[in-house]
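Q: Sequence in, structure out?
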Amino acid sequence: IRENDKNALKSLSKRGYLLGITSNNLQENVSKFVSQEGLQNIFCRWLGWNDPGRVNKWLGLQKPSSKGEVHMNDFERVLKVPRSEMLFIGDSLKDAEIAEHEGVDFVPKTGTFLKEDFIAKFSGKHEHFVSDVAELNNLLP
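A: Exactly. Output:
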């Protein structure tokens, strides 16, 4: 993680924002990343994906919850933050879909996808965009 991004996240945390990570990567990789980057005091939660239900789904044995549902439920339960007060910042169209499905406000981070990609897919639904994590400090009160 770039030092500029880390400083921006520290600033948000110091301002009272509860920060969490939600990732498609395995939980062990997310935990390792947080530890190696020294982010334990910045993020309240860091959640990866290690749902054994995926295998069951492929086998037709059960329908597991989506990553978005599992992670947003965790943030609500552990951090005591209702979805109406959450803000999801993501860099993919899938992240925007998850936020919409889970009833969480979303700010696209451009780079992986262009602003125009988000506008086309979501009919201009998103008001704000960031291209750098540090921009969040200007966007959030």
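The radius of gyration is 16 Å.
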